[in-house]
Amino acid sequence: MELPRNAFRHALAAGETQIGLWCSLCSNISVDVVSDSGFDWLLLDTEHSPNELPAVLTQLQAARGGTATPIVRPSSNDPVEIKRLLDIGAPGLLIPYVQTVEEARQAVAATRYPPDGIRGVTGSGRASRYGRVPGYIQKAESEISVLLQVETREAMAELEAIASVDGVDGIFIGPADLSTSYGYHGSWANPEMQDVLKDAVDRLSALGKPAGILTANEEEARRFLSWGYRFVAVGADLGLLRNAADALAKRFKS
Question: Are 174 and 149 in contact (CB under 8 A)?
Fold first, then answer.
């Protein structure tokens, strides 16, 4: 049995744009529903969602065979949590709140087996199809996406150095936290923050490093894409459900 191919990772490496959806409902059924919607990637969130390992496993199972590659965001840059997510077969990780080069190196190391990293070894996890993939330990990193989230003013000062760490496949710019770090309390619509977001993608593009971002505003998403952002989440499952439910109730209750 061959190692499952990470279509998202190879598409980014080939310079292709990847359109994604944020998934915060912690539900394998909702992931099953959206996995065939045509998105290129789904972000399974555990940082700002009550999402735990057994539930993430069912969501990864639900996404298998769909159009979208599931990327999991751990709750922190924790090597034990990263190890457990990789062992259950997460094809990629979005590591939050990376502020320094050393933290970037630690994140990558957690996804690599020794001597290149510190990932612990199991021969029977879901990632190796329960031991059926020959040479999994030697092959694993070739199909794992390592994305780092830059979301503070301090991290922006080290953006190029963080992005240049060996093994980093892309940098995700967290607009809400970043704008809060600049004193705008989660709002990035103001001109200064728009300039910061444009500057970030320009600097990453100059390095040849894919940049990612999230917005539920379609006009803004298209602007980010025109600026050169390469993996863009254009909505969230929770927001889609909320907005549709609110609109339906309003039509009947107004």
Answer: yes
pLDDT of residue 84: 98
Which residues contact residue 60 at a Cβ distance below 8 angstroms, ignoring those fewer than 6 apart? 44, 70, 72, 88, 89, 90, 126
Sequential DSSP letters for 112-131 = S-TTS------SSSGGGTTT
Bridge partner residues of 18 (DSSP): 231
Instruction: Flag residues of the chain having pLDDT under 70.
Output: none
Query: Active site residue: 5, 48, 132, 222, which one?
Result: 48
Instruction: Give the pLDDT confidence score for residue 1 in this predicted structure.
Output: 86
Q: What is the rounded distance in angstroms from the CA atom of residue 173 to the CA atom of residue 195?
A: 13
Domains of the chain: 7-142+212-253 (3.20.20.60)
Active-site residue, 48 included: yes
